[in-house]
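Supplementary Methods, section 5.1.

A reviewer requested that the exact input to the structure prediction be made available. We therefore reproduce it here, unchanged from the version used in the analyses.
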Amino acid sequence: MTESITVTGIILSAQPIGEYDRRLVLLTKERGKLAAFAKGARRPTAALLGSSQPFAFGRFTMYEGRSSYTLQTAEVENYFAELRNDLATVYYGVYFCEFAEAVTREGLPAKEELKVLYRSLGALSKPSIGLELVRAVFELKMLSIGGVSPQVFECIRCRKKEELLWFTAKGGGCICKDCARKPREAATPAGGGGAAAGEEDVQPVSASTLYTMQYILSTPIESLYTFTVTEEVLRQLKKVLKQFLTVHIDRRFQSLELLEALT
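The structure derived from this sequence is encoded token-by-token as follows.
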């Protein structure tokens, strides 16, 4: 007889299957991303009706079949019900879950990824620092855990740590003032220095924007949703991340398109 397992996680998505079932994708601390079927969960009187919805966080008991898991019981600790009070926070929450599903793997423990997702969904529920900044923090921290975050602590060419005035998504991080002046770099955007030939995505970054990225990457997630930035820093941060994600993730997120159309 197949033994049951119990995992701690968040339901990332729930799709209807057949007449009454659901197919769930969860992010779990113990086994990373996994898919599980919740049989009969769409029946009005089903015990799993409410606990097999996106955003549900708790402990899930299931047994493993040949190709998938089957959910048996769920002890939900947090439904993140506040997210559903506003259409924008719903879309942000769905995007965070889509993003987590895209950058995590099956079978690999995801303790840190789960922590970032949980804290970020909570921050959406109480957006004291603004939804767009919550999104930037979430994206950077998830990229960092996955090992594909931008290099913002030193120049990607000479490893100099001072005067990092430029950012290139294709190059993967910052370029210092000296490297920007070398002969292979031609075009000169406003503000001096120069952009590398063939690196059309090079853009200037202010010291404040650079510090913000360094702070997000080096600070524990528990302490991150406590600060604010100026509109200009947020504008640069959003642009940098959008370019970086286009190059290094290159995935279309339906929820993000809906969110951008809404805002």
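The radius of gyration is 21 Å. These observations are discussed further in the main text.
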